[in-house]
Amino acid sequence: MDTETYKLDEELDSFNNKQVQEEILAILDKGCNAVLDMTDCKYISSTGLRVLLYSKKMAASKGLKFYLKGVSDEVKDIMDVTGFNDFFDYA
Amino acid sequence: MKMPRRLRIRQSLASRISLWVVLYVVVTLVISAFVGNYYVLKIVRDIEENGILYVIGVRRMRLVLTLLFFLTLVVLTYALRRTIHRLIAPLTTFTQAVDEVAKGNLQAKLPVIQSKDEMRRLHHSFSLMQKSLARQMEELKAFNEAKGRIEGELKVARDIQLSMLPKPFTPTADSNKLDIYGQQISAKEVGGDLYDFIIRDGKLFFCIGDVSGKGVPAALVMTTTLCQFRILASHEDDVEKIITYINRITCDGNETMMFVTFFMGMLDFSSGRMQYCNAGHNKPFVIGDGITELSAKPGLPLGIEESASYIVHEYDMQERTMLFLYTDGLTEAMTPQREQFGRQRLIDNLQSGMNSKDQIEKMTQAVHEYAGDAPQSDDLTMLAIRYLEK
């Protein structure tokens, strides 16, 4: 199965969450595994976390995988506090 | 937009004006020519037949021609002015109509145009503009009415939500070992943060939570979570059972992946023994002689995985210590330059020995001073539980 990557160039919050969600769903619709490159992302809000959760759920429902890549220390802290650190798959 | 056939300009205003100019000039010149010719011939005849002196004759000719020239000029100027004014008179009426529209009278009358020139086109465009403006104003009015209705409903919703949160704590004979104060300040009309406390059988059940997002969607999930806690805590003593059950309910039918970070605990106030579980929420602080963050390994927030499990932690609350719970609206409060309040500033504003209400008010004040003019970015909620004595 092919894997396609979408790169985030900024924070993931309520301003860009719809757009990012659509990009990831588009990759999954093509039948590819999706990777979200978060190297340039320094902050994620709860709305942003929902994007990640929904992407993982959608990928699972299609028998595909959703990975995170390049998670920064700041985002990792947020995910540690909210109990998500072991929840996602990493590329 | 293609002009309707009958509105196409047959004759432009400029060509009509120049037509009149040419007409006047030609007519006036022809008449002047005839009149001039007549007088010149008369003078020549006077010179040749009647013996008028040549010099005098020439003088008379000059006089006649000069008078004729000025007469022609005056007549031409007068006639042209009148004609041009008549042709562009509708413009004045248009200007008046525009002033009327600007004052808000969209029904201002336009001049009637018979000619098929730019005036007619101006009339057509102006009339279209009037109709379009009238329609837009109607739409705006309807939109504002709907907005006003929604704002009214949200205000009512806010009141309902506030009344769902626990009433201010008043110590009774049972619970005079406690001092509790809680506060929720939502970023929008309704909020996604919740807190609750229930006292029964010598035990205090408490919780604080933060639904992902804010506004109406978060508020809806907030109310169900709050109700679930209230129902369960009123008869179930096992902290793990309570949180696991609430999680399962929250996962049920959760298509949009709304999740709730949640912290709940049970304090036995005769012994000070506290049991608690953390579902991805900010760890509370214990303020005694010093300030420490409570150790609470986070499980998944509520609503994500039905089979999620939660570790039950235990802690012995000492006398005269305070448990300070908060949501991330506090640490993530931002200045206009988007700098966050942060964990350290929170710790710096915690103070031993304060009562719960004063501590929360002090923290609220600190956040407001820090954030300045920046709009509130997230719901701000705090719950302070002071354990006075065993």
Explain this structure.
The complex is a heterodimer of chains A (91) and B (390). Chain A has 91 residues and is an alpha/beta fold. Chain A has a single domain (3-90), classed as Transcription Regulator spoIIAA (2-Layer Sandwich), CATH 3.30.750. Chain A is 42% helix and 18% strand. Chain A has three helices and four strands; from the N terminus they run βαβαβαβ. In chain A, α1 (17-29) packs parallel to α2 (46-61). The longest helix of chain A has 16 residues, at 46-61. Chain A starts with a strand and ends with a strand. The model of chain A has no long low-confidence stretch (mean pLDDT 89). Chain B has 390 residues and is an alpha+beta fold. Chain B folds into two domains: 5-132, no CATH class; 165-387, Phosphatase 2c, domain 1 (4-Layer Sandwich). Chain B has a five-stranded antiparallel sheet. In chain B, strands 2-3-4-5-8 form a five-stranded antiparallel sheet, covered by helices on one side. In chain B, α1 runs antiparallel to α2 and α5 (216-233) packs antiparallel against α6. The longest helix of chain B is centred in the middle third of the chain and has 47 residues, at 118-164. Chains A and B meet through α2 of A and loops of B.
